[in-house]
Amino acid sequence: FTTKALTGKRVVITAGPTQENIDPVRYITNHSSGKMGFALAEAAVEEGAEVILISGPVSLATPDRVERINVVSAQDMLVACESVMPSDIFIAVAAVADFRPQVVAKQKLKKQPDNEQGLLLELVRNPDILATIAAREDRPFCVGFAAETENLLEYAEKKLKAKNLNLIVANDVSNPAIGFNSDDNMITLVDRELNTTRLALTSKAKIARRLMELITSYYLKETHH
Ligand code: C5P
């Protein structure tokens, strides 16, 4: 009998996209299959953690022993995250929509003779879920993702500081072989001292397992276990 490293610890993971309604038939969203977040949830269970997966709309089965909360919008996702705090580790993998329509039309917006030129949609900023959780007094160990198409490490380091994270995972989404709907991924983990660990191209399941091991060892180090 061996006790796993995260036995008795709560890990909260966000995954998938959020959808922001425009009217009853239309919405704004981001590219995200949810695969990476779901793979990480599975890996966290393997480390012995109690895992809560807060997911936007995706077509993936819930991994065994994972508690899943389904949400649609960024605002819903934030409320769900706050409802399961405090936690020991928070991993934000979700591709949250940065903006939402200022008003959600009650009826389907119709094409009118006076909007032949187009339609102007007013958007407002969504809350930053990760930054909000990382600013709590009882903040968990916080891990973010930075999907970038250029200046990967530079932007990742900026986000690490701006959102007050413990770790950030940088991935280059300009490469069609990795990221988004792909089954493979290649990432670089960056810590607060800007040490980097590269995980080479492999399946999201393998990357998730290795990444969860790294997150766990950083977490245990920082909490003096
Ligand atoms: O700033 P950017 O959206 O690139 O940051 C990405 C990281 O922040 C991801 O970990 C993502 O899940 C998280 N995020 C969030 N809430 C937002 C925007 C991003 O939790 N509104």
Automatic annotation (TrEMBL):
The keyword Ion transport does not apply. GO terms for molecular function: FMN binding; metal ion binding; phosphopantothenate--cysteine ligase activity; phosphopantothenoylcysteine decarboxylase activity. One of its GO terms (biological process) is coenzyme A biosynthetic process. Its cofactor is Mg(2+); FMN. Residues 6-217 form the DNA/pantothenate metabolism flavoprotein C-terminal domain. GO terms for cellular component: phosphopantothenoylcysteine decarboxylase complex. CTP binds at residues 98, 108, 127-130, 145, 159, 163. Its EC number is 4.1.1.36, 6.3.2.5. Signal peptide: none annotated. It catalyses: N-[(R)-4-phosphopantothenoyl]-L-cysteine + H(+) = (R)-4'-phosphopantetheine + CO2; (R)-4'-phosphopantothenate + L-cysteine + CTP = N-[(R)-4-phosphopantothenoyl]-L-cysteine + CMP + diphosphate + H(+). Pathway: Cofactor biosynthesis; coenzyme A biosynthesis; CoA from (R)-pantothenate: step 2/5; Cofactor biosynthesis; coenzyme A biosynthesis; CoA from (R)-pantothenate: step 3/5. Binds 1 FMN per subunit. Residues 11-225 are annotated as: Phosphopantothenate--cysteine ligase. Coiled coil: none annotated. Keywords: Decarboxylase, Flavoprotein, FMN, Ligase, Lyase, Magnesium, Metal-binding, Multifunctional enzyme. Catalyzes two sequential steps in the biosynthesis of coenzyme A. In the first step cysteine is conjugated to 4'-phosphopantothenate to form 4-phosphopantothenoylcysteine. In the second step the latter compound is decarboxylated to form 4'-phosphopantotheine. Catalyzes two steps in the biosynthesis of coenzyme A. In the first step cysteine is conjugated to 4'-phosphopantothenate to form 4-phosphopantothenoylcysteine, in the latter compound is decarboxylated to form 4'-phosphopantotheine. In the N-terminal section; belongs to the HFCD (homo-oligomeric flavin containing Cys decarboxylase) superfamily. In the C-terminal section; belongs to the PPC synthetase family. This is Coenzyme A biosynthesis bifunctional protein CoaBC. The chain holds residues 181 to 405 of 406 of the full protein.
